[in-house]
Specification:
Length: 114
């Protein structure tokens, strides 16, 4: 079955967070992580797996801590990776910590169904 809506992926910074996430008309799954952290090293593979497993109609935002320290502080990000799901500019769900890839994809898919 073809996907009905595209999945958009965007790199987020303190400068574009408001426009890309808070003002977005589609849900945005935001990944807070840092490439230099061991626990974040396989997040790209998880995101790729997730993109293949969902229908679309969502934006995936990647936050590199060096580019969005103020944003991470605003949302009290203390564990990595942390995923926040935004709908209509509000956080509606979250997931923090490291899980096996299949479990992480399953949890993120469930978040997107809310």
């Amino acid at each position: 079955m073809p996907k009905t809506k595209a999945i958009t992926e965007v790199q987020l910074t303190d400068k574009n967070f408001r426009e890309e996430v808070l003002e977005s008309s589609t849900p945005v799954l935001v990944d807070f992580c840092a490439d230099w952290l061991q626990q974040c090293s396989n997040i790209s593979a998880i995101i790729d797996h997730l993109k293949k497993a969902i229908e679309g109609g969502v934006k995936i935002g990647r936050v590199a801590l060096n580019d969005a320290a103020s944003t991470a502080e605003r949302y009290t990000i203390r564990a990595f990776p942390t995923f926040l799901l935004f709908k209509d500019g509000q956080v509606v769900d979250s997931l923090s910590g490291v899980y096996p890839e299949d479990e992480m994809v399953t949890r993120l898919k469930l978040m997107l169904q809310t």
